[in-house]
Amino acid sequence: EEEAADDGAVNIAKAADDVITIFKSHPEIDMINGSRLNKKSDTNGRKWYRNITSHGLTFMLKIFLKLKASDSICGFKFFRKEVIEKLITQTSHNNGWFYVIEILLRAEKQNYTIYEMPVRWTDDYNTTVHVFKLIRNYVSNIFRLRKLFKKEHLL
């Protein structure tokens, strides 16, 4: 059984067949992480400053939290049921966007097998994202999680 997270910019219905096929044909895969930054991804309408925040976040996560994935915040994530149930019990239950980043990082640190899937992404022009507030949130959460992961011996 699979569970999904979706933020609307990726059409889950169109990708569902691929996801089901991947999980059925590769029982070793625990999680599928959609990536807008994968070279095979098709992103449309992405604003230049959103690209900067996405790449900047990924860079900081790689430096401070040892992220392996190419895209941490794309809302397209599928999990095997038993995997997500375990990961949810371990998270700090941040109710913002950083929650999915923490889940991904915990999955990586516990050596779950993660398949990075290129996505077709259409940016939402009606977004209410405030870039400077977003960057401040990212930085504070990176250091909060770094402190927590050090305490848990994950870094």
Low-confidence stretches: 1-8
How does the major sheet shape up?
A: 4 strands, mixed
- From the N-terminal CA to the C-terminal CA, the straight-line distance is 31 Å
Question: Total helix count?
Answer: 5
Shape: globular
Features:
155 residues, alpha/beta, two-stranded parallel sheet, 6 strands, disordered N terminus
Describe the structure.
With 155 residues, the protein is α/β, with parallel strands linked by helices. The protein is built from five helices and six strands. The protein has a four-stranded mixed β-sheet. Helix 2 runs parallel beside helix 5. It starts with a strand and ends with a helix.
Provide a short characterization of the protein structure.
With 155 residues, this protein is an alpha/beta fold.
Question: How are the elements arranged and paired?
Answer:
Elements lengths: L1 E4 L6 H14 L5 E5 L6 E3 L3 H18 L11 E4 H10 L7 H12 L4 E5 L1 E3 L8 H21 L4
Parallel strand pairs: 2-5, 3-6
Antiparallel strand pairs: 1-4, 2-4
Helix pairs in contact: 2-5
